[in-house]
Write a structure and sequence with these properties.
Number of domains: 2
Shape: elongated
Strand content: under 5%
Largest sheet: 2 strands, antiparallel
Distance between the termini: 39 Å
Order of helices and strands: HHHHEEHHH
Radius of gyration: 21 Å
Length: 121
Amino acid sequence: MLRKAAEMVESGVDYRVFHNTFFGPDSELLAGRSRAERARLVKGALYRKLQDMAVELGVDQGYLERDAASGESRERRYSGSFVMRLPSSLHRQLAVEARREGVSLNQLCTAKLARPLSESS
């Protein structure tokens, strides 16, 4: 199981996929085990190693952050805003399109950014 986990990390798998593979309700690690078996497993070295790998992956990919004081990991919080610099001509095109669509520039840009990249090309 550790080999599979290492291969997943090496391939750059998304943190959420890694986490669900080993810690989700139907995961390879937990599926079909009794409550007592799960309790023993959680205290074992394999579980701790997989958990450490998941945390490192989550931190590297921006899903998690470490508390500076305690070293504990937690879900990384994002404010929901960022500043983006773009050419004035593109700003103008977006503003005109937003006005034509009857939405704010922020709503238009959010909708465009939310589309999968394959649709926006």
